[in-house]
Design goal:
This protein is of the alpha/beta class. It contains nine helices and eleven strands. Strands 1, 2, 3, 4, 5, 6, 7 and 8 form an eight-stranded mixed beta sheet that branches. The structure holds pyridoxal-5'-phosphate (PLP).
């Protein structure tokens, strides 16, 4: 909304993310345009974006058109999935060349940094954070915030946040109720002091998993998460790629281990996006990730023995060879 994206426009993003990423695009009236992910990090693939622009878009009258839909491509929306920053350098280069704005979905990545210590949400025109209770910094209900380095954009977002009114009761814009409740802000203000410690403990848990999986010799069945060299991953989720995922998940549930699938249906196959005309096979890496990924418990309060138990149960599943 702040970038004035609406009907007739389009925004490029990933099909392998929480629904809100594309939901926000569609709710402005714009069209989500999907590009596939990198299989190792599950994040938007810059080469895929480049290929998409070359094959399906053209510049005419100073506008970048998506040929088949006749929409104007206005922005790129990478997602820093699971708490690892999506490498921004190649995407920012594409955006500069193509004249696109960049909106970072940093909902899962507060405090995550790339190899040059750039924090998630600091490189694009706007960074978006969520304080939904499942995030590393979770409120007791709903909350979120946007970041920007652009003073004019910051002012515009402040106005949109309060129904577009400034001064009060004078509306040059149509905004919405996008405020954080005082109550949630108070909770977050206290929890913020603990955030780095909680994220460090998630990281320590991830290292225990990594080592335990390596020792268990499960490479043939389980791929542990890959952190890019020098990147600081905050492990909002610890997501493994496995064979016979659904059977494993059932067996873990029976052993008292809660797991989750982020995400079972890629966005291009969601019913509400049928109008985009996609089908099975359009984004094979996103579809494969949706079939193979499983998020293990990673929260800061877990004891090492609990993590070892999880790995041991997974080892037992594959040793059993049960279907
Ligand atoms: C949680 C999440 C959101 C949305 O957050 P809300 O607080 O529900 O608006 C958006 N994108 C991603 C990737 C998320 O994980």
């Amino acid at each position: 909304m702040a970038l004035d994206i609406g009907p007739g426009d389009a925004v490029i993003t990933t099909p392998y993310t929480f629904f809100a990423t594309a939901g926000t695009i569609a709710r402005t009236g714009a069209r989500p345009l999907f590009c596939d992910i990198e299989p190792e990090t599950f994040n938007l693939s810059a080469p895929a974006v480049r290929r998409f622009l070359e094959a399906h878009c053209e510049r005419r009258d100073g506008v970048l058109w998506h040929r088949s839909s006749g929409t104007r491509v206005k922005a790129l929306m990478p997602v820093h999935l699971y708490g690892q920053v999506c490498p921004m350098e190649p995407l920012l280069a594409i955006a500069r060349e193509a004249g696109l704005r960049v909106i970072e979905d940093a909902a899962q990545a507060i405090g995550a940094r790339d190899a040059l210590a750039h924090p998630a949400g600091s490189r694009g025109d706007i960074g978006c954070f969520s304080f939904f209770p499942t995030k590393n910094l979770g409120a007791f209900g709903d909350a979120g915030l946007c970041t920007t380095q652009d003073e004019a954009l910051a002012e515009h977002m402040r106005i949109l946040r309060v129904h577009g009114g400034k001064p009060k009761y004078h509306h040059a814009f149509i905004g919405g109720n996008f405020r954080i409740d005082e109550l949630q802000a108070a909770v977050l203000n206290i929890k913020l002091d603990y955030l780095d410690d909680w994220s460090a403990r998630r990281g320590a848990n991830a290292r225990i998993y990594d080592e335990a999986f390596a020792r268990a010799g499960l490479e043939a069945h389980v791929a542990t998460p890959r952190t890019l060299p020098g990147f600081h991953h905050i492990y909002n989720q610890y997501v493994i790629r496995v064979q016979r995922r659904d059977a494993l998940r059932e067996q873990l549930a029976a052993a008292g281990v809660g797991t989750e699938i982020y995400y079972p249906i890629p966005l291009h196959l969601q019913k509400c996006f049928a109008y985009l005309g996609h089908g099975e096979g359009d984004f094979p890496e996103a579809e494969r990730a949706a079939r193979e990924t499983l998020a293990l418990p990673i929260y800061p309060e877990l004891a090492a023995a609990q993590l070892h138990y999880v790995v041991e149960r997974i080892g037992a599943f594959y040793a059993g060879g049960a279907a």
